[in-house]
Amino acid sequence: MSYFLKMTYSSCYTALLLLLSSMHWLGSSLASNPLQLSATADEVPVISKSDPPITNLFQRPVLQPKESTPPEFLYTLRNPQGKVCAQANLGVEYVVRENKKNYYFNMNPSLTRVTGYCGSQKSVFSLEFDGGHLEFTFIKEGDLSYVNSVKGLLRPVPPCKICQNKTYVGVVSHEKLFKAKNGLSFQCKSQTTLKLASYFTVKLVPVQIQAFDLGNGAFGKEVECWDDYNKRMIPIILGAVAAAVCLIGILTYLLVREHHSQGYEQL
Q: Which H/E stretch holds residue 228?
């Protein structure tokens, strides 16, 4: 009987350790969000008395008072030989802060063109449209590749009659974003938020991106982002925690019942 009690205590202790470690891991995972990045750019938007020339005035960005899901599109960049050397599948939403209010603009794939260049160690991938752009700088370092900086610019129609023409600019630099081994692509189905400046944010929903070693112009195997990993693992962890709690309850009940039965035998 003492052997049974030792085994019961051991099982309870193991289950309790599992419960505590699972909760600790879950908390630390949810706390980590490496893509919520702050700006290193000037914190004051540029006020333009006269905007630089725009190719088509009717296509100038118009800010919206409400947020909506941006259209997803596959953008590709080719080298002079016509080979795909960088590509991104994403939806892009700009968010600007004006007069204590947020305004939104979704990038339109049909009005967006891809520019840039591809090198062996560095590539620049830029999405440009009349009134704005979003530029990614890729770095290849050893067996890893990543985005070193993201630059954004938006020159919209003023959101109100008394508002001035402004050019919203910002950058996140000296980071290692969307990191993946060479030949692999970075993918995040969850929303990725890049705070380019205090008044200027870009949201990517979703994003899959790669700039080096694209075999036959196709994405390599996906590297999962933390947010997607957490969403996938949370149900598993919660299930394990629930099972541990049930196990602790069952073992506690058996322990108490066994203790009572031993007392009756002594009488």
A: helix 226-266
Please report, for residues 13, 130, 224, 264, the alpha-carbon distance to residue 2 in angstroms, rounded to integers and kept in the order given: 16, 80, 49, 16
For the chain, give the longest Cα–Cα distance: 99
Tokens of 267: 């009488």
Q: What is the amino acid identity at position 16?
A: L
The first and second tokens of residue 102, run together, are 């947020």
Torsion of CA 99, 151, 141, 125, to 10 degrees: 140
Token pair belonging to 163: 């508002």
Annotate 17-51 with b (16+ C-beta within 10 A) or e (fewer): ebbeebeeebeebeeeeebebebebeeebeeeeee
Q: Do 169 and 46 meet the contact criterion of CB atoms below 8 Å apart?
A: yes
Task: List the structure tokens of 10.
Answer: 């051991």
Nearest to 201 by CA among 59, 32, 57, 70: 70
Distance CA 242, CA 245 (A): 5
Write the pLDDT tens digit of every residue in 179-197. 999 999 999 999 999 999 9
Asked whether residue 10 carries a pLDDT value surpassing 70, the answer given is no
Q: Give this prediction's pTM.
A: 0.73
